[in-house]
Amino acid sequence: MRIHSSSTIRPHRTVTTLAALLTGALALSACSSSDNKSGKDTTDSGTPASTPTSSTVSLPKLNGTTLEIAAVWTGQEQANFKQVLAEFEKRTGAKVTFVPAQDPIINFLGSKIAGGQPPDVAMLPQPGAIKQAVRQKWAKPLGPEALAELQKNYSQGWQDIGKVDGKQYGVYYKAANKSLIWYNAKVFENAGAKEPKTWKDLLTSAQAVYDSGVTPFSVPGADGWPLTDWFENVYLSQAGPEKYDQLTQHKIKWTDPSVRQALETLAQIWGKKDYLAGGQSGALQTEFPASVTQTFTGGDQPKAAMVYEGDFVQVNIGETKAKVGTDAKVFPFPAVGANAPVVSGGDAAVILKDSKAAQALVTFLASPDAATIQAKLGGYLSPNKSVPISAYPNEVQQKIAKALIASGDDFRFDMSDQAPQAFGGTPGKGEWKDLQDFLRNPSDVAGTQAKLERDAAAAYGSGS
């Protein structure tokens, strides 16, 4: 289930380039003056998100046609995406139903397909899941209209990550910059803490925050995937891109000394009970949305000062009274080694029932028209290079989007998302479970490595 696209093997220089772009971009976060802080479906002007002023994509009339699209998205993210689907309905006459899926979505789809009721389209968050869907003969390749729209609007790297055996199956509708740490600005100000550039600086800032009476970090240990993202950022920066690619493809073992070093580095934070909101046990009961909201509620006395995760955190910040760029600020994940890491992720639209309507929906999702609608709503990042930067509702988001597009093909995709589903994408199993166990007992580095290697070997060997 590994993705073998050219986009995953890049020299160190290119990673550094994007990191530098992001550093400059995020330095402007305090200048942001408009954000979707209410959590409502509005643009920066406070009005409902509107259609792009002109249609760039031709769609067929589909009056009377019904479609289903499945995704694991919930809350505001789901509500925003439904506005995109409403525009497709308006243009085509089709009726589209959003089907909430359980994680891992590949298992959810398997049960739907076994029951003879697959959705027409599914949003798959892992390249490994796309490959599994192809191997199971569930996924259908893109037709000429969708392919043309994709090729017009996406860099080669983003096209390649949606390919299996050279054929295009996925359209990455959503991207993520997963190398960001968000912080409560008032807490940092009260503590005299600085935005860190290096891991050592991060520990210094964390100690200053702790000394001021606030717990430094909110870690969503109840969800395994943010823990894999923590590891990937540390590992990419510390071990370097070549090792990152080798571990991604299981060409080196998880018992490698580079993995030990990364786990020992993580333990400098995860191993300090007083540095985690609720300690290790509390972190293991904290789900991702709560990890964000508890960082930005409570004024200057929140449950934690910092929370690590991607640009999509803005959606959850929007559920609080905090204002992005003023109350909630952000810095790039600090450099652990010579260079700061930049890890990307995303969700791809994949056709499961090949029809004129399903192809039209994916063609629409590959267009700037669809992405522009959701970009205006905030908490969303598109790899579609034809989306105007001005569509993003605040300066923080605009700069992150500009850096993503400027990077072209030069990015590293989320390691666990490229792994076999059984290892890198299943709650209670594989890497998710092993890192949760490590968060529970950060002193057991060797035991964690042994479990990671055992589970990786089983998953990569079976290709599941």
From TrEMBL:
SUPFAM superfamilies: Periplasmic binding protein-like II. InterPro entries: Bact_solute-bd_prot1, SBP. It comes from the Bacteria. Keywords: Signal, Transport. Coiled coil: none annotated. Residues 1-30 form the signal peptide. Residues 44-59 have a biased composition (Low complexity). Residues 31-59 are annotated as: Disordered. Belongs to the bacterial solute-binding protein 1 family. PANTHER family: ARABINOSE-BINDING PROTEIN-RELATED, OSMOPROTECTIVE COMPOUNDS-BINDING PROTEIN GGTB. This is ABC transporter substrate-binding protein.
